[in-house]
């Protein structure tokens, strides 16, 4: 009943089409059954409807573990189960090889074209009912493999037991495994193009993972969740426009807070849903941004070397618990942004590298496919299926988990083929240039599809070069991002603030230069995790001086930042002047907030956020040149900067004045465009913030005394190392 070649290949797990041999077949008008189980002594066929044993399968003489036989008096296929016997032990199970395929013709077509925008719904592991039976459907793309099997505890991790069905030109392999459900641990075992057995692979579309250092995927049920955030989803589009007060709190979930009483463990998604969400809300932030939470093997990578792009890391809980965290953010009117890493991936054996024995997701040429900075592999964006995998991943987070935005990591490394490479170590594009045309097309497609199919989301690029049009629409030759991190502003301003105040007059331009390009993109001003690691020191450590002077410098700098055009981003701990640089293995030093100076900085950041939110002139025209006007940009000797922020027509203007010397400027005249009373909305030197409480008694009235090129001016006390905000009082 089974020829020797088929029998040998089935028993060794090398048959390219096991469904043509195993299962139920009509042979010479007889219903035959063939089953493979290397540990069984006997196999019987049981009628599912009646529970009666229909046939006993005999051992095939030409292969160990292979059983075959015919069903007497049966002419048509019927539903059945297999009864196995091993010694005194007997058990029944569904036969995976009696079930037809799950993927449809449209799925096959879209997969082949690299155009399946719901790709995660057909690939990966999906709990479902198929042909009336509950189980899990597994599907994986491995076009160059000779055989792919799903393995797990359910089959003793034996790749011979459950080889999958190939789907022709798609390169996809699939199998429906009856009886398996949520929580099942699995991997794929592949035989490569040359007959070699490859390391077992985690599922590229796995929705769950084991806790590192274990590396298997875990079946997680995607459907069935009833979302409770309809109100937020309906209004978020209006809250994420460029004219809104977006203030982002960047967080590493593993070290925001820990529980020392329980082995210094990080908080769970549930604990973050209460503690982190309520804290960020109280601090006035509008968004949380999580450093990468897609599953990653090595804690020290902070998530930037992901292996499971579709799995929220198990370090803090399950997929369903992550969704509860998302809902908690939305219930508190906090947007949630995820750090997304489509630029590179690690070479871990269970990951995407050489997935089917060939460079499938990566380039074959290491000059194109290897990142020297991070010792990682680069995606082959020009391959339609790889681009589809990544685009679908962006949509997966936005659609399946109601994520409000994606911050795309290391965009510059994607845009240029020679990024961090020496001459002779990179391959030019088809036109001989250095731009990565395929990566550019991928980013444009991702943004086009994301904005086009998901209402109210935002994408943000971490891009450190002068590449044009990062936040311009794709139909205007841009990359299509909503915002771009302003790395130039960050580098220049941090360089300036670290100077001794006596020398700042020689570096005055570093604080003004950003205004020459501030409106070429929709910018976010980032003080991120990258600025407080690798020996750079914490924000308070960067400040010159000693004791109180350090804190005054930091407060003045934060005031300058919140007064500057652009949305805001601050890394956790920076908001209360964390004393030492960030350590991913330790909790933030929350006890410092009880100290008046640290608590004062925390109060300042909270009040800056509230001022930013409640003052239209500080955010409405953040990304437009008419929203900014210099009053004094050349007062280098005094290290004073004064500027106006404007909102839309009818909005009261705001005057911002920064003094970056430790010298008080008394009766200092600053020109104003309009006569009237200017209300002091915030003074970084206030006692509430740990300052000397020097200021202007809450307001300053203008006089017709020319200054700064204006006919009217105000006389101000500008405390040392301070930033002041004044808003023109409305008159009836």
From TrEMBL:
Catalytic activity: Transfers a segment of a (1->4)-alpha-D-glucan chain to a primary hydroxy group in a similar glucan chain
Domain Glycosyl hydrolase family 13 catalytic: 250-606
Pathway of action: Glycan biosynthesis; glycogen biosynthesis
GO annotation, biological process: glycogen biosynthetic process
One Pfam family named in its UniProt record: GlgB_N
EC number: 2.4.1.18
Protein keywords: Carbohydrate metabolism, Glycogen biosynthesis, Glycogen metabolism, Glycosyltransferase, Transferase
InterPro entries documented for this protein: A-amylase/branching_C (IPR006048), Branching_enzy (IPR037439), GH (IPR017853), GH13_cat_dom (IPR006047), GlgB (IPR006407), GlgB_N (IPR054169), GlgB_N_E_set_prok (IPR044143), Glyco_hydro_13_N (IPR004193)
Cited SMART domains: Aamy (SM00642)
Gene Ontology molecular function: 1,4-alpha-glucan branching enzyme activity; cation binding; hydrolase activity, hydrolyzing O-glycosyl compounds
SUPFAM superfamilies, per the entry: (Trans)glycosidases, E set domains, Glycosyl hydrolase domain
List of catalytic residues: 409 (nucleophile), 462 (proton donor)
The keyword Repressor belongs to this UniProt entry's keyword annotation: no
Keyword Transferase belongs to the record: yes
GO cellular component terms, semicolon-separated: cytosol
Family named by the database record: Belongs to the glycosyl hydrolase 13 family. GlgB subfamily.
Subunit structure: Monomer.
Function comment: Catalyzes the formation of the alpha-1,6-glucosidic linkages in glycogen by scission of a 1,4-alpha-linked oligosaccharide from growing alpha-1,4-glucan chains and the subsequent attachment of the oligosaccharide to the alpha-1,6 position.
Name assigned to this protein: 1,4-alpha-glucan branching enzyme GlgB
